[in-house]
Specification:
This protein has helices at about 5-40, 90-100, 120, 125-130, 145-150, 205-215, 235-245, 260-270; strands at about 50-60, 75-80, 85, 110-115, 135-140, 155-160, 165-170, 170-175, 185-190, 195-200, 220-225, 250-255, 280-285. The radius of gyration is 21 Å and the shape is globular. Helix 7 (about 235-245) packs across helix 8 (about 260-270). By secondary structure, it is of the alpha/beta class. The protein has a seven-stranded mixed beta sheet.
Amino acid sequence: MLSTRDRTVVSGVFLAFLLILVLLWHQQFRRDRVTEESTSKTIEGLGFVSNLKLTILYDNNPYNSSVTAAWGFSCLIQTEATTVLFDTGGDGHILLENMARLGIDASKVDVVVLSHIHSDHVGGLAAILEKNNRMRMCLPSSFADWFKLDIKRYRCEVIEVSNGTKISKGVATTGELNRGIKEQAVLLNTQKGLIVITGCAHPGIVNIARIAKELTGTSIHLIIGGFHMAGLSAGKISSIIEGIKSLGVEQVGPCHCSGDLARKMFKDAYGEKYVDTGVGRIIELKTC
């Protein structure tokens, strides 16, 4: 048995350990609050995009049989002012092959925006940089230092973002969102409302939609991309759909990690306002 002195020592060590845990939790809580509060600041002078064209270059859901479906996500955003590549899929060879089949020249990309550091979203980056190192790279500031250094070897401009940031006329990023895995989404401001493009939606698709509205002060016309709902129960999916609808989201186009059940339930819930999405899907929107 432990002596009274030994029990006192053990109790002291345990209390010290608990205090350290509380301090660490408080520090993380403060970081989370700072990120969420700063994210909610409106992006000034965003402007509008017109004659918008979205092309899903990489997705695990098939849509166009002329291109290859594979796990991951990448979307090309073409506006009158700029061409943005959002994420690069998991395999550079497949990404470049799909781009070639769809008649897209990698050298014409002006900006690459990376949602988060998972390989199925950044795996094709090196292949793109080999074709075009004049692009600006927009990535969450929390990305690992080794990743940033690797990009800088190509001598392209690297923009690290934490908060909502304007990229070009009518195009912005939410900045890195702080629930779980840090991730950013792309915002396109159109005369019909906001278009939100998500990579994997780890911070929660409802949370992303809410923050997108706060950042822009604009209603949401369309959310498209990975919704991170694969494997969720029908009850949980139903709750998320209600959350999206309560925010006034007009159209949805879930793909990548959304899961078959969630895609079906969103389609049932949105009917004609559901946008069928997969690799090779092209969406054109004239808003002027």
